[in-house]
Amino acid sequence: MQTEILKPTDLNIMRCASRLKAGELVAFPTETVYALGAVATNAQAVKKVFEVKKRPMDKPLIVAVSKKSDIKKVVKSIPQKAQILIDKFMPGALTLVFDRADVIPDEVTAGSSSVAVRIPDNAVAQKLIELACAPVVVPSANTSDKASPTLAAHVKDDLDSKIEYILDGGASEIGIESTIVDVRTDPPTVLRAGGVTVEQLKAAIGEIKAKREDARLSGYMPNAEVLFSAYYDGMTDNICKRYDELMAKQKTVVILCLDGNRSAYGDRNVYTVGDSYEAYAHNLFALLRKADGEHYDAVIAEGVNPVGLGESLIARLIKLSGGLII
Ligand code: TXA
Ligand code: MG
Questions:
Q1: Alpha-carbon span 205 to 82, nearest angstrom
Q2: pTM of the predicted structure, to 2 decimals
Q3: Does residue 122's CB lie within 6 angstroms of at least one atom of ligand 1?
Q4: Is the pLDDT of residue 214 over 90?
């Protein structure tokens, strides 16, 4: 099968929607990362998603709808705090976990009685889902051993010849995945920190529980070893020291740093991530792919303050480093 990257014209979106309706898979842009879509109510199509992604069968998929009024079609009920979060953050980088309605097959939820739902804040994604006339599963469009894709080219690198079409919407705006909140508990529980920050959630509904993710259970790991630095005054000195130790052991190393810290690393190998935590999130996965492409043995990532997207970045980087912080 040839994999074609398509411009997101109306005609191409229509073409992709009809492939979805026919039970095929299509990759498309969302504001967080690229999605690998299939019609969620078609169990056979959903099974193909697991095959193509090489995803463990016990890891459920997120379901996307194109508008708020469609959420009630895929869930049993909408708790009051969930409604507040829907009104405030959807469409957007927030996924809510509800009791699932019967239309969603076991294949989507790995047999669980819950379903995770979101509305992508991306016009191409919304139009495609609307034209598919059905809820659509939206896992990240990478194979399980790779970083979430933030460009159509990343999707092609991973899924070439496995899917027909990739709609190209340019670089994903946010660059890390959605925040997942289980609204079946009160207070609701954050299962994954992502594009919507925990501070924003607290401001909307008050108390919220955080479930610690188990770093050792992480799916994707880059080929390069990831060392994640704590955030403190002596951070850049500590990173230089670790870098020099690794180089002395004949390892090739690259540092991920904010533009403002660039000069602290002298002539060491550096990828700059931009000048804000938003930019760090936006560029993180693409730079990890680049580090693997350039065969680095190790990546040292600068630590950040746990404010705003910093908290979501820390959660990702702890996972990527296997829980080891330098
Ligand atoms: O931003 C995102 O959410 C992206 C875009 C493409 O939509 N998708 C994404 O999907 O990150 P994926 O498959 O890479 O990660 C989905 C996460 C998994 O950790 C899965 O365990 C969790 O969502 N999940 C899905 N359904 C769930 C459920 N019913 N209960 C709890 N967790 C669930
Ligand atoms: Mg993923």
A1: 9
A2: 0.96
A3: no
A4: no
Question: 62 to each of 154, 218, 283, how far by Cα in Å?
Answer: 20, 17, 23
- Beta-bridge partners for 39: 136
Altogether, the residues listed in the chain come to a count of: 326
- Bridge partners of 227, per DSSP, are 300
Q: Tokens representing 271?
A: 């990828």
Going by C-alpha positions, the residue among 285, 9, 13 that lies closest to residue 157 is 285
Q: Which tokens in the block code for residue 173?
A: 């705006």
The CB density around residue 251, as the number of other CB atoms within 10 Å, is 14
Residues 94-123 have pLDDT tens digits of: 999 999 999 999 999 999 999 999 999 999
Rg (CA), the chain: 20
244 has pLDDT over 80: yes
CA distance 315 to 320: 9
63 lines ligand 1 (CB under 6 A): no
- A 10 A CB-CB count for 77 gives 10
Q: How far is the CA of 146 from the centre of ligand 2 (A)?
A: 9
Q: Are strands 225-228 and 62-64 parallel, antiparallel or unpaired?
A: unpaired
Is the Cβ atom of 86 under 6 angstroms away from ligand 1?
Answer: no
Closest atom, ligand 1, to C-alpha of 33: 6
104 lines ligand 1 (CB under 6 A): no
Q: Is the CB of 95 under 6 A from ligand 1?
A: yes
Find out whether the beta carbon of 142 lies less than 6 Å from any atom of ligand 1: no
Residues 202, 300 contacting (CB under 8 angstroms): no
Tell the residue number behind the tokens 């990831």, with chain if given: 226
Give the sign of the dihedral formed by CA 293, CA 221, CA 288, CA 303: negative
Provide the 8-state DSSP code for 75: B
Query: 302 alpha carbon to ligand 1 midpoint, in Å?
Result: 26
The closest residue, in CA terms, to atom 3 on ligand 1 is 178
Q: What are the tens digits of pLDDT across the range 279-310?
A: 999 999 999 999 999 999 999 999 999 999 99
